[in-house]
Specification:
The protein has about 375 residues and is of the alpha/beta class. The protein is built from 15 helices and 14 strands. The protein is about 45% helix and about 15% strand. The longest helix has 24 residues.
Amino acid sequence: MTTSATRIDWIGRSCRLLQATAAEFRNTRPFEGLTIGTGIHLEPKTVALLMTLRAGGARLVCTGNLNSTQPATVEFLRAQGVTVFATQTTDPVAHHQSLEAVVAEKPDLLLDNGGDLFAIAAQHPYASLLGGTEETTSGRTRLLPMREQLNMPILVINDSPIKQFAENRHAVGQSLFESYMRFTNRSTNGKRVTVFGYGACGKGTASCFRNAFSQVSVVDIDPVTSLQAHLDGFVTPLRDQAIRSADVLITVTGHPDIVTARDLPLIKDGAILMNGGHFPNEIDVAAFHGHEDVVEISRYEADGIETLHLKDGRLIHILGGGHMANLAGPRPLGNSVESMDLGFTLQVRCLERVAQRAVGPESCVVPVPADIDAMVASAYLDLAR
């Protein structure tokens, strides 16, 4: 007998650690009577995360992130009775309205990605909010100045060593390399690639492109980090030189305005720009569009590529509108299943800890507790043995 299956089915069955956790949660019900509000990329791997939370008794109220919401995922979740406020949009205003709709439901726990939900909750506080998790470095940077105002446990998944090496270093590098190939269908052999940022994501990105026979340069504002890149065998030129030489420029810093219109005179003819950071502001695409030297913009809509035509005849190509490239453009697959299985299991275990009231306000914007890291690592290794 042949049955029809979907990518959501494939991903769900591939997330073995989440499956095992969901089986446990059906008995322990750590989220019974609680509502969890989420603002994280709505794609098939997120379904596996959300179904694990629901197995633990949670009511779910969800939205996504800019330009990464996949309609099939929204349709599936709604069919499962999940409340979803999300559309596939690149409009920040429309996206913010979806975020506000989630917080208006007054969830007991928040699973945030970029600090959006907690920032709104800080402006409109309510007594039942216990705390929650933040996925990203970008979100941690945003929430740290708000710690006194938030005054609740918020565990930062990206500060887990597991998240750093399994997802950021290995999976982000792989998925950005795959995304470059998927967008462009162009070779990486011999290409001069400049990577901005040498954190875990930058390390993985630089390594993957070097392994694909590119000539890789690294730019980082921290001289100690730049020295590490140098000793790892990467070229570490000054910033302007790194831009002038690059066939491909990749931003993975977690900070805005890394490549801006001021850099336009430096960018070589035919260069490709892509972003791997969470927010679509590392490459200032709007400023490029409005620059007086840009006389025409060609859009390859089906491929997620736009080409800027400059007065002097140069062409500059931007992938995915400057959004996170591995979740933009045609067939956006994101990071590998195994890496997200690990990262999302960290999420559910941290939310379980907050739901148990086992952490207090002193744990506001802090890393994942070490015993949770050890628990998740041991569980993954047991399944792999």
